[in-house]
Each structure stands twice: as structure tokens, then as C-alpha cells.
Amino acid sequence: MKREVPLFLTAVIGVFMILSFFVPHQVVSVPGQFLQLTAVIVVSCGYVLGGANVLRVNLDAIAKQQPGWIYKLVLVLSLLATVAIGAIEGSGFLDPGRRSRWIYDTLYSPMSATMFALLAFFIASAAFRAFRVRTVEAWWLAAAALIVMIGRVPIGDALTGFLPPALHLSSIQEWIMNVPQNAAKRAILMGAALGVMATGLRVILGIERSYLSGED
Amino acid sequence: MSPLERLARLDRRWIFLMMGILVLIPLLWPLKMEIRPTASSRTFHRAIAAIPDGATVLMSCDYDPGSIPEMVPMTRTAMRQLWEKNCKVVVTVLWPGGPGLVDKVIEDVAVADFPGKRYGVDWVNLGYKPGNEAVMVLMGQGILTAFPNDYRGNLTRSLPIMQRARTYADFPLLISISAGYPGTKEWVQQVQARFHLPMVAGVTAVSAPEFFPYVQSGQLVGLLGGMAGAAEYEKLRNESGDASRGMDAQSLAHVFVALCIVLGNLVPRRRAGS
Amino acid sequence: MRLLASEAASRQDDGTTPGRLRGVPRSRITEVPLRPNVPATRGWGLVALLLLLGSAAGRLPAAHAARADSAAAAADTIAAPAPASGLVVTDVPNDAGRALTLQWKPSPDDVKGGTRVVGYALERSETPAGPWTVVDSANAGITQIDDSSPDRGRDYFYRVTAVGPGSSTPALSITGPVRATSQWMNTTRGSVLVSIAVFFAFVLYFMASAQSGKKPFVRRIPGVDAIEEAIGRATELGRPVLYVPGILDIDEIQTVAALVILESVAKLTAKYETPIRVPVTYPIPFAIAEEMVRSGYLAAGRPDAYDPDSVRFVSPEQFAYVASVTGTMMREKPGAHIFMGAFYAESLFLAEVGFETGAIQVAGTANVHQIPFFVVACDYTLIGEELFAAGAYLSGEPRLVGSLKGGDAMKIAIVAAILIGCLLETLGMHGFKAWMATQ
């Protein structure tokens, strides 16, 4: 029963949600709406499980004073403080002037933006290190990459402004993005969509059941 | 050791430093390169211009502080264009880290350029709700059902703006400003396809190519891609915002990356960590 | 007829009257004088505020604001508009009985630039004699609107009232009874239903065929073969294996595929006695990842070697997760990095930092915008559907392998449909394209 019940539920709900795309009748749409609401609630409740794991792992490391335990202590204290502040402030969470707003504006927002900004540096180092042209196809790829990169910014038109409009780097990059790039992307998207459907079908039919734990 | 071999052993921090300098200089001393709007940006601008004056529009700002340079200029410029037309704007944010940022961005636009605009009358921030696509579908059953309270804790049913914004059918346009998942793709799949709500999108540069098929099929009637798209939009609106100022830096950064590709092919290959 | 969004947008460029941005034309009057059952007389300068009552289901139709008194005086001098006519009410198809479409002929006074007609009020009653309730309104020039507030299965009567600056004129007749009904099938999605049925038929056929002994050939996927090589290298170096199952939640199929592959990877690490580290972003994939790793160790006959701390919940916050994982890479220096699942901006981060540690890296994602970063920075990359095929490929189970062939068969069908569609469009026959377009 430990495996059969989840498999049965997966099959029934999976088929039902597929049906809801085709059947607008309230017999299907009303329970479908209920299931959507239920999914939102289940996802929210899952955060309790995750938070408990963070505390368990890090408190254990702090207690054993494993290498870097100071940082784990900072993590746990930050987690508890933010949760406590959020709980105290309730519906006023992130209102201007609140402590949670200070955390958001002073810590979360700058750190998040900084991490994202680091990508610019990594792109340059990856381009220098790894973009090797060894085959004819790689030459085409490199040429297209250079045209698109330069053509996408104002400097591209500044460099080729003296040419007819059709030969401006911006025009060529637009053609590359709209025609060959689009065609290849559509093909990959279709293949990936088929993969998604096949995997979903395997899960619904219970053929892909390893996520349930244990052996067959 | 030859110069190329020396270059092959170059500590990557020199590359980081060069990139940092090339981005910083034009921010301090603008080069003022001319920005030419593309067809994609023009359709985005035109789609918003075609909205009837005074209509209520749905805008989903699905991003967080990591995407500020690309997403915030789009949001600001779109809000200005909408408020010039006296449109009302219902804002949702499907990223947990986003509501505070989006609230501030829109409030700043109101304070700076439209002091007469009032929260709850001219705009509302419905805030964040977990569930991703499930929230989008739930909104199709009724916006008030999905968001009984707004981001600031008000009962949405009591807000004047929400009297005319009950279902997707009440909006002439959906504007999706999105940095990833959940975002534009999910709005197209769950809302545009099911409810036939006309839609425009502003997305990050890296994900913009993914949405060109949707533009060609007509599922998106306009698309802004990255900071370049935001700069083009500002240009169409005769504004000079953060995106326009950032394009000089982006231009030099792109040239530098192109140079890195060329130089990288001239140096012998090495394996890191060895 | 419902307009496509692209057609609606392009019509605006022709300078036609705006207000039809979508197939169902809609416009909101923010301030309009409305008064039901008012005869068409001169001299009305009436200000009225109508409050619309909600239905039993709690759906509140739009409320209309009233015009200021100061405008009423000017409105007194304009004659009442001629009535609208020809109201037709039809059930909105393909829904759960929640809407009716109202179409009418405009008032003869509703002309471009005219002032005698401000708009129309749509009124509804359950009996022909009233009482009438205004359920919606439309600007002048609009002749179609949807009423989304009727109760399912109940009969209603409608009338349209032409509204002028100072007065209003109901239509000379009412329309009804009409009823919003549910449909059992969304007929516009027939093509999707057929496509899904064909696809499922292919997959089920080849799965059954594989199970009966005719296991299909699957080409080598170098990235999948490289997983065992990567784990072997980590074992030689005496370092752990880092497995990153993407950054999205369990509702993303890529995460499901990544977790399926994790079981095979865990089985290999158990067999080679190599530690595994699995940082996870969301709680539900975290719970499933624990089960997968435990299951892998069990399958390898090493349940005692399973370390409960090998799977960790980190954070759903993208860059917090990246900071944690890259920190793990720099501190523990795993010998192999396996990135499988849905990735976004952090893909280059992970791959580039991972490269600097000298680990062998295998990646797989169906997020096409991140594939270039993995291709550049990793040793092997699974592109698109190869990620979904990897689980079947690794397990070798006939039914799973058979499903791959079903997908391939569907691709051939899609190519055929594209070619047929292009040919028919070229010949000017648009039926196939119209059938394929869903709503």
C-alpha cells in the first residue's frame, strides 16, 4: 500500500488535470480549481520541512565545531532573526520603515544584485578560456556570436553606420536571431516538450516510480 | 616564455579587473552612443499606446533584485506610458523576493512624475503568492479569489481599482516583465493560450531568443529584450533612464568579450586546477 | 469572430477607433450618467450612482461612477439618443457556463465625433417585466460585450440602453430567455487532443513492444556515458561527487528527470564508495532526493553506507543557493560535478567556478538559453530532451527505453505535419492551419 496508494493518486490526479484542459464543464473545472488551490497550500507547507533540515544540519555542525562553524552560526541566527521579525510584523512585513524592510534593502537586495553582477566577469573569463574554434561549424558559431554581440549594442551601428542599412551589424544580428536561431530553438523546444510529455506520461502511468523510494 | 604563453597563464582576475574598468568608465563619462529601436521594441511600445485611455491593465513583475538593471527600467517606462494614458495598473509579483522592490519602483515613479496617482485607485500591488502557474490559473477563476488581500494588507475587494478588475476578461492587455521562472513563458502557456489575453513581455537578454517564436506566432504582440530593449523603449518614449545610460557600458563590455574570444583562440589551452 | 491579438494590434496602426484590443471588445466608462428606465426626454441633468448587486456566487459586476453635478447642466441641452437595437445574446462556447456574449446594433446617433451617445448600459432581468439590473457598460462605438456574471443554467432577459450625456433610452425590445450553459468539450482544442492521443499511442505501443522483447536501439549519449567516467575520476582522487538537481521545484519535469538520474548516480557512488553531495533548493525535491539517494544505496547493496547528511536543503533563493554550492565546491573540491535539471542565470556561475576547481563536469538541461553556458564550461552537456532520455538510458529498463522511441516517432509525425501544413498554406488552403490553431 505504501507505493500503490501514491501511484494511484498520481495516476488519477494526473489524468484529471489533463482532462481539465479539454473539458470546461464545472464537473471538471471546479475540482480542478480545488486541486490548484491545494497545490499552493502543499507547496507553502513544504517550507517547514526545508527549514527544519537547515536547522538540523547546521546546528549539528555548530555543536561539533566543524570547520566553518562560525559561518553556520551566522546562517542559523540570520534565519531565526528573519523568521521572527517576519512573524512579529505580520501583514506589515516589508512596509517602509520596518526592520524587515531594512533587511531587504540593506542586505538581501544588494547581495542578490551583486551575485548576479558577478556573471559579467565570469562570461569574460569563460569566453577567454573555453570558446575554442577548431572545426568549421565552430567558425560559423564564433562569427555569429561576434556579430550578435556587437550588433546588439549601439557600438555595432556606430561601427557600420556608413554601410547600407541591410549591412548594419544590428540588421544582420536581427536576421540571425529571427531566422536560423529561431529555427534551431523551435526544434530544441519541440524536442524538449516531447521529453516533458513522455516523462510526465511515465510518471502518471507509474512506470517511472523510483521517486517513491525503495525497490520495485 | 612567449607573450601568448604568458597570456595563457593569465590570472583570470586581470580579466575581471579589465571588465570592471570598462564597465565603470562609461558610467562615469558617458559616451552617448545613439540607440536605434528595433521592430520588437516598437511593437511593445505600440501595443501599450493602443490601449484605450483609462483602461485597467494587468502587469506582472516577476523579478527580484538580481535583475534590477534590465527589469526596473522597463517597469518604470511602462508605468509612465500607462499613467500618461490614465490607465490603472494591477500589479502582481510571482517571485518571493520581488514585491518590496516592485512596490518601491512604482511608488518612486508615482512620487517623482505622477504625484496625483493614488494607491488603490490608480494602481495596486497584489503582492506575492506561492504556487507559480497554479496562481496564474487561480487568477483566471477570479482575481479577488486568488488575492483576497493586497501586498499592503488591504482587502482587495474594498479597493476602487479592483471594482473593474475581477477576471482576465477585464484587462485589454497583460504586461509581463519577467526575469525567469515563473514568468513570461508560463503566462503565455497558462493565460494567453487559455484566456486569449493580449500580451507583451519584457525579459532578460539571455532569455529573449526563447520568446521570438511567440512573437512570430502572435502570442506576444511585443517584446523587450534585456537592457538594450529597455534602452530602445526609453528612446521611443524620449526618455533617458538607467537603461540608456547603461548601454555605453554594455557596448564596451560586449567588445571586450569579443576580444576575449579572439585572444582565447590564439593562446595555447590549459586545464585549470592542474 | 474573435480577433487574434496580432490582428487587433495591427488594426490600431490603421488609425481605426481603438477599443478593440482583443477579440472581445471592451471599454470601461469611468464616469457616466446612467439611469435605468428613464424615458427619452429633454432636460435631464441627472446624476446617478448605480451600485450593481453581485450574484449568489459572489461575482460583482463593475460599478459605475457618477458624473459631477456641474456637467449635468451642460448635458441638459442635448437630446436623448435614439435607442440601440438588434440585441443578440449567445452563450459563450467552450466554458463552464459562466458567460454570455451580447451583440447589438448601435444607436443611429452613435456616430464618430458625435455627442448624443456616450455609451451603452447592458441590463439584465430574470423576467421580461424586470426589475432590471445594469450588469455592464460599454463606450460609444462598442457593439459587443461579454457578461461574465450570470448564474449557470438560469434563464435571463437582456436589454441594451443607449446612454447620452443627460439621459438614456432603453431598446424598444428585450432579448431572452437565454441561458449560460456548460460544454463538455472545448472544441477549439481538438488538434491538441488528437496530437496528445497520437503521442500517447506511440509511446504506449513502443513501451509494450520493448517489454515483449523488441528493445529498440538507442544511440550513444556521450554525456550520459560520461557520468560513470566522472564518478570514477572522483573516486580516484578520493573526492566526493557533487550532484545539483536544478533549481526549480518538483512541478518542473526537468527536476523530476534530474531526480530519476540521481538514483542511478547514487547507485554508482555507493558501488565505488564515493561520497555524494546533493544540495537542493526546494523542500519537496529535497525529500525525494533523500529517497533517491537512499534507494540508490539500497540497490547497490550498501544501505549502511548511506549518509543522511549527503542531501541538504539549501534555499529556494537562486543566488543564495549558488553561493552555497560554489562555497561547497571551493571548500570540499569535489572530483566531479553533475548538473542536471532546470537552470537559469546560475548555470555559468556553477560551471565556471567548478572549472576552476579542476573537477570533471557533466551538465544537462532543457532550458535552451543556458545550454550555451554549459557547452562552453563543461566537459559534456546533455541538450534538451537528452536530459529526459538519460533516466531511461541509464536504467536500461525496456519500457522506459521504448518510450524514447515513441517520442522519436512523434517527432516524425510533427515534421510531416509541418511539411503538409506548409504545402497546404502555399496552395491557399487554410483549413489545416485553422484546425491546428487552438484557443
End-to-end distance of chain B: 19 Å
Sheet-strand content of chain B, in percent, reads 5-15%
Shape of chain B: elongated
Q: What's the helical proportion of residues of chain B? A: 40-55%
Number of strands of chain B: 6
Helix content of chain A: over 70%
Q: List the helices and strands of chain A in order.
A: HHHHHHHH
Query: If you compute it from the alpha carbons, what radius of gyration of chain A comes out, rounded to the nearest whole angstrom?
Result: 26 Å
- The tally of strands of chain A reads 0
What does this structure look like?
The complex is a heterotrimer of chains A (216), B (274) and C (439). Chain A is mainly α and 216 residues long. Chain A contains eight helices and no strands. The longest helix of chain A has 38 residues, at 26-63. Chain A is extended, with a radius of gyration of 26 Å. The mean pLDDT of chain A is 86. Chain B has a single domain, classed as 3-Layer(aba) Sandwich (Rossmann fold), CATH 3.40.50. Chain B has eleven helices and six strands. Chain B has helices at residues 3-8, 12-28, 39-49, 68-84, 99-113, 133-141, 143-146, 184-195, 208-217, 226-236, 242-266; strands spanning 56-62, 88-92, 123-125, 174-178, 199-203, 222-225. A six-stranded parallel sheet of chain B has the order 3-2-1-4-5-6, with helices on both faces. The two termini of chain B are 19 Å apart. Chain C has 439 residues and is an alpha/beta fold. Chain C is built from twelve helices and 14 strands. The chains are: A mainly alpha (216), B alpha/beta (274), C alpha/beta (439). At the A-C interface, helix 1, helix 2, helix 4 and helix 8 of A face helix 3, helix 5, helix 6, helix 7 and helix 8 of C.
Write the layout of secondary structure elements.
The complex is a heterotrimer of chains A (216), B (274) and C (439).
Chain A: H1 4-22, H2 26-63, H3 69-89, H4 99-130, H5 136-151, H6 154-160, H7 169-178, H8 180-204
Helix pairs in contact in A: 2-3, 5-6, 5-7, 7-8
Chain B: H1 3-8, H2 12-28, H3 39-49, E1 56-62, H4 68-84, E2 88-92, H5 99-113, E3 123-125, H6 133-141, H7 143-146, E4 174-178, H8 184-195, E5 199-203, H9 208-217, E6 222-225, H10 226-236, H11 242-266
Chain C: H1 5-13, H2 69-75, E1 85-91, E2 100-105, E3 119-125, E4 133-139, E5 144-147, E6 155-163, E7 168-170, E8 175-179, H3 190-211, H4 222-237, E9 241-244, H5 253-272, E10 276-280, H6 283-299, E11 311-313, H7 318-332, E12 336-340, H8 346-356, E13 360-365, H9 371-377, E14 380-383, H10 385-395, H11 398-426, H12 431-436
Helix pairs in contact in C: 3-11, 4-5, 5-6, 5-10, 7-8, 10-11
